[in-house]
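dumping this here so i dont lose it
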């Protein structure tokens, strides 16, 4: 295996993103840049300089169309959908991966690996007057985090201690089952239009509700030389997630994503 540099990982992620955008354009599927990728587009016109992650978000209906049709629409076997529904992922959301690569995350068990990826998160309706579903998702997400965690790695002494106590038991549980339960709970959380959506599979509890008016239309922002879709209310969305999102955080407050990435031998 050949180690990949951060810039090589970013280049591969952009190639995956291009494949994703092509599929969405050809199939009439609406997507939006999300989280740090949206922040990077709005503030830096590309990756946040200290980040190497790409996240996209979609309404549940478009998300289900994408995961159902991806294998028919992809341009080559190089691009693969890693998803718990076929047992190929321990996450409750979909990842589109480069099958010619291997990635090991710093905080995850070393027997859990995937290819270089972009994350695809569904947005589900949320009822702010009844958060029982999101509380359940929060409990399931906490359990799943211990199932997949590397007990030797932690952000603090207490975190490491907790992992060393809980992980030996949690590792006997089925991470794919918990991913399925989280996603099913998110899909079933609310069956009516409440005016709010949330990425329940990622948020857990408490959810970060987003007024659906934020997504009333699509606009485009530059990202690494591309013009990509963002919600018309992207400034409001960034404010909900990051507060004063235009402000560059000090170095000690910058979240850095740590992975080991490799190109597989052919």
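and the seq i came up w/
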């Amino acid at each position: 295996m050949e180690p990949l540099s951060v810039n090589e990982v970013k280049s591969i992620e952009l190639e995956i993103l291009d494949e994703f955008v092509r599929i969405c354009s050809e199939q009439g599927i609406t997507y939006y840049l999300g989280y740090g990728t949206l922040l990077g587009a709005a503030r830096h016109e590309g990756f946040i300089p200290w980040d190497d992650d790409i996240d996209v978000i979609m309404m549940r209906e478009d998300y289900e169309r994408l995961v159902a049709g991806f294998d028919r629409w992809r341009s080559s076997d190089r691009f693969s959908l890693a998803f718990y529904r076929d047992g190929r992922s321990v996450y409750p959301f979909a990842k589109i991966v480069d099958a010619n690569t291997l990635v090991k995350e710093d905080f995850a068990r070393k027997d859990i690996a995937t290819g270089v990826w972009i994350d695809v998160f569904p947005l589900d309706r949320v009822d702010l007057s009844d958060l029982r579903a999101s509380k359940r998702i929060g409990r399931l997400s906490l359990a799943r985090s211990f199932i997949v965690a590397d007990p030797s790695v932690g952000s603090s002494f207490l975190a490491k201690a907790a992992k060393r106590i809980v992980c030996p038991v949690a590792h006997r549980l089925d991470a794919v089952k918990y991913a399925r339960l989280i996603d099913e709970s998110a899909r079933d959380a609310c069956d009516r239009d409440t005016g709010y959506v949330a990425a329940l599979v990622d948020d857990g509890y408490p959810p970060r509700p987003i007024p659906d008016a934020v997504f009333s239309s699509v606009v485009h922002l530059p990202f690494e030389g591309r013009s990509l879709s963002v919600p018309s209310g992207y400034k409001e969305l960034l404010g909900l997630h990051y507060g004063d999102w235009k402000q560059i955080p000090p170095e000690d407050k910058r979240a850095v994503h740590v992975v080991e990435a490799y190109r597989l031998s052919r």
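The chain has a mean pLDDT of 93.
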